[in-house]
Design a protein that fits this description.
This protein is mostly beta strands. The chain contains three helices and six strands, in the order βαββαβββα. This is Gamma-glutamylcyclotransferase family protein.
């Protein structure tokens, strides 16, 4: 059995996307670049507060996240802990800027975490209001 590939970017499709609540918590300072991408051959589902992905006849919108120099191992470690219950697999992801296929790590739901409905169009952000719109209003003073 060959060793798993090292240095691949990660394809993120939900709460780790820029502007979402786990992006700043887990990716800030660990990435060198993030770029829009699509993952063919997958379906996105709405889980309890987060999406999950499975292989299927669809496509999923997300971002390719490239580790900052010297941060790859830390990024793998934090994402593996965050994505417990998911399997990290290699997929061919399409960059939007040029359509190039790029090998990337993708977290795929195992049967234990599958609950929820399909997200039409495969884009987590399309079914949620922008982050700022989800924040509660500040208390008003009279």
């Amino acid at each position: 059995m060959s060793a798993p590939p090292r240095g691949l970017p990660f394809f993120v499709y939900g709460t780790l996307r820029p502007g979402e609540y786990n992006h700043d918590r887990f990716l800030r300072g660990r990435t060198a670049a993030e770029e829009p991408a699509r993952l063919p051959g997958a379906l996105l589902y709405d889980g309890p507060g987060y999406p999950y992905l499975v292989r299927g006849a669809g496509r999923v919108a997300g971002e390719l996240v490239h580790a900052a120099p010297g941060e790859y191992d830390a990024l793998v470690s934090v994402l593996d802990r965050l994505e417990h219950g998911y399997a990290r697999e290699v997929f061919e992801v399409l960059r939007l800027r040029d359509g190039a296929a790029v090998r990337a790590w993708v977290y795929v739901a195992t049967p234990a975490v599958r609950l929820g409905e399909p997200i039409a169009g495969g884009d987590w952000l399309s079914r949620r209001p922008p982050r700022a719109a989800r924040l509660p209003d500040a208390p008003r003073t009279p």
